[in-house]
Structures are given as structure tokens and as C-alpha cells.
Amino acid sequence: MADEGLVSHKRDPIKSSVGNAAAQRRRQHAVTVGKERREALMRTKRLCRVRVSGDSDDASPDDNDMMIEEDQSILEAQTSSAVEELKLAVAHQGKGPTQKRVNALRELRRLLSRSEFPPVEAALQAGAIPLLVQCLSFGSPDEQLLEAAWCLTNIAAGKPEETKALLPALPLLVAHLGEKSSLHVVEQCAWALGNVAGEGEELRNVLLLQGALPALARMLLPNKKSTVRTAAWALSNLIKGPDPRAATELIKIDGIPDRIVRHLKKGDDELATEVAWVIVYLTALSNVATTILAKSDLVEVLIEILGMSTSLQLLIPIVTLFIRISRIFQEAAWVLSNIAAGSVEHKQLIYSSEAMPFLLDLLSTAAFDIKKEVAYVLGNICVAPAEGSGRPNVILDHLVNLVHGGCITGFLDLVRSADVEAARLGLQFIELVLRGMPNGEGPKHVEREDGIDAMERYQFHENEELRSMANELVDCYFGEEYGLDE
């Protein structure tokens, strides 16, 4: 084997600028993800045409009525008139006029739901926002709250300046996410807030300051699908960055990591899609979130979805997640390989950490580039620097436990690869096994995994270094006398 060992493959030390560059890449990736999602779902903000719960009662518009495309000028005139009717209804206080307010709100909501391009400007010019805010006051009937929140939802789906008009209503919309509100009202307010958050960073920051994040996060804890679906969509708009603090705050809320993965696994395609986008933004923006989710069974769930789902809307964020996680694992393994190439104390720190079972699993199951980085980590923790230019010394207990943990298969996969660097790395580790395993067990472990065949492939290889390394190992450990003493 060549004199240089695994330790010689130590990468350049990590500079402080690398961390900054990595953070910049994460933020840029979040922006890219946002563009991908807009293309996939056509628009970040959504009109509400049917109640979020899907109930078919008087508060839900008739399908035929909902889809009629009115002449825009007529629609605008009707909207102005509806706002005037709402003014009259709001001006009359007491229990008697309650139904008048609800009826006026319902008519305004129907007009704002009827067209693909709602007459939002007409509603705003007629003075709808102060009236709707008044109708959101606590103690109002649920039906009134629902209709008012629904109107605000569709106003928020309009142009940027129209969405900003909701600023006076935001504190009440957030407050109605509390436990004392009915589920229908909570869901509708969440939808309105999702539209506001989708407008941009300025309004997202306003919502974060008003406590929208923990209020929406609580909606992920129940199992009602429509509630979770609406909350997940609103949260993905709220945390999408570029500031990573909201993503980190969300993942730290008690119970949220478990619920996110559970809803992704057990939800239908629509629910899983919204939850998947939350995870995309979490992992794109927050290292804390990525670390927490990596300890869950997220990867297994993603693999299961890829194998079973036929929903393009779901597969888009799932594939995005796979790409994102692969980048993270590769970057993390590179950092660990630098640490593992350090002192014996550094090697022991990694060896005794909870990362070891995960690294062994990645060596067998991860994408090729990640396998290579992981192989550097595992190889480096098994050797100590040698004096002079000799071969590196084996750290026996590290090597024995890795071999018994099944790592030889992964390293032989690298030997069989067409990548010269990976093949060299694999041969170097096989040399450690052949030389270092106690009681002469190394050759038997390698032979059991068809390692002889893997090395003999290099008998006439064009790369002189690999050819020499492989032939030397075969001749030295599997020569004519191999197996005669058995």
C-alpha cells in the first residue's frame, strides 16, 4: 500500500468565512425554493371560495353563484352597495340587528368570492376595513366572525397595497386564533393571515411581532386535517425568510417537530404537501431545525412518500427536501472529516458521540458524494498519526467496532466505484482492516464481503497508484498460502 494514509486527506481548515458563506447559501436556497413553490402552486396567496372546513351550510356560497364571472363594473358597483349596507347594519347595535350584520357580511363575502379578480379596490374605497374590524370584535357571534374573516381573507389575496390595508385587522385576526374561538373562525383567520404573510417580509415581520407564529403553531397539534393544512400553509408563508429566526423559533416549540413529521407521514396528499413545504423552509433557513429533524425518522418518511405517492404537488417539495438534506449531510460530513483528521482526542469525541450509528447508516444508504465524505470521517477516526512517514497507526477499538458494525460493505462499494478518489479511500480502509484486525481476522472479513473480487478488478487498471495498491493487498494477504492453515 502507498505510504500516505487516510490522515493525509485532511481538508483545509474551516475558516470563519465558510460559516458565513454557508448561511448565505441557505438564505439564497430559501429564495430559490420560494420561486419553485410559486411556480408549482401558481400563487402564494389564495382566494377563499368555500369555507375551509368544507361544510355545506348557509355560510358557504352556492357553487354556481361562486363561479359566475360578473361584468367588472357591475361587480364593483354591487360591492360598494354591499359595503354601504354593512355600514347601516353595523350602526345599529344590540341583538336585533345581528342577523342584518351577518346578512350584509355574507353578501360582501359572496361578491369578494365570485370572481377570479375580486373587486377589492371597490370594497376598500367604500370603507370596508374599519367595518370588518368592528365585526371582528370579541363577543360577536361566530357566524359574524366567520364572514368578516372570510372577507378579509379575500381582500388580503389582492394586490400588495390592498393586502397592507389589513394592518388594522391583524391584531384581532391573531387573537382569534386562541383556544376560545370556534374552529371555523380559527381556520378562517389563519387563512387570512397566510395571505398577509405571503405578501412579503415587511408584513411577515409585523405578524411575528404580534405573536402569529406560536398561535399558528398550536394549530398543528390537533389531528383535524383542515386545521393542520391551513396552519401549515400559513406557517410556510410566515417563516420563508430571509431571516432564519422564525424558522428556528417554530422548530423549538414543544411538540412541533414530532407533529410535523407525523402529519407528513399520516396525512393525505394535500395535507402532506403543505407540511412538506414547512419542512423545506425550516431546513433551508435553520441549522437548528435541520439538526432536530435529522434525529427523527424524516428521511424514512420521505423515501416512503417517494415510493408511493403519485401527486406532483407533493413530490415537488419532497424532491426539494431530498436535495436540501443531501447538501446538508455532505457539508456536515465534511466538517466532521476535518475534526476526525485532528488529534486522537478529536477522533475519540466523534467515535463516542451519537453520530456514529447515523454515519454508519449513511455509508450504506446515502448518495455517493455523501458516502465519500462519511468514509473520510470513519477512516480518519480509525488511525492515529504515525511517526515520520510511515503508515498510520490503527486505533484498534475504533476499527474493530466499525467492522463489526458492518462498514466493510460501504468501503468496498467505494473500491468498486469509477471515482479514483473514492476507490483510493476504500482501498486504504481495507488495508487497515487487513492489517489491523486482531487474530488475523481481517482477511476473512474482507473475503466474506467479496473484497478479493473488488480488489482484483484493479489488476490491469490504467491508474498506476490504484493498481499497485490493490495488487499489493491481494498478494500480501491473499497469496498462495492463504487459507492453508484452516
From TrEMBL:
<dbReference type="GO" id="GO:0008139">
    <property type="term" value="F:nuclear localization sequence binding"/>
</dbReference>
<keyword id="KW-0653">Protein transport</keyword>
<dbReference type="InterPro" id="IPR011989">
    <property type="entry name" value="ARM-like"/>
</dbReference>
<feature type="compositionally biased region" description="Basic and acidic residues">
    <location>
        <begin position="1"/>
        <end position="14"/>
    </location>
</feature>
<feature type="repeat" description="ARM">
    <location>
        <begin position="211"/>
        <end position="238"/>
    </location>
</feature>
<dbReference type="Pfam" id="PF00514">
    <property type="entry name" value="Arm"/>
</dbReference>
<keyword id="KW-0677">Repeat</keyword>
<protein>
    <recommendedName>
        <fullName>Importin subunit alpha</fullName>
    </recommendedName>
</protein>
<dbReference type="GO" id="GO:0006607">
    <property type="term" value="P:NLS-bearing protein import into nucleus"/>
</dbReference>
<comment type="similarity">
    <text>Belongs to the importin alpha family.</text>
</comment>
<dbReference type="InterPro" id="IPR024931">
    <property type="entry name" value="Importin_alpha"/>
</dbReference>
<dbReference type="GO" id="GO:0005737">
    <property type="term" value="C:cytoplasm"/>
</dbReference>
<dbReference type="InterPro" id="IPR016024">
    <property type="entry name" value="ARM-type_fold"/>
</dbReference>
<feature type="region of interest" description="Disordered">
    <location>
        <begin position="1"/>
        <end position="28"/>
    </location>
</feature>
<dbReference type="GO" id="GO:0005634">
    <property type="term" value="C:nucleus"/>
</dbReference>
<keyword id="KW-0813">Transport</keyword>
<dbReference type="InterPro" id="IPR000225">
    <property type="entry name" value="Armadillo"/>
</dbReference>
<dbReference type="GO" id="GO:0061608">
    <property type="term" value="F:nuclear import signal receptor activity"/>
</dbReference>
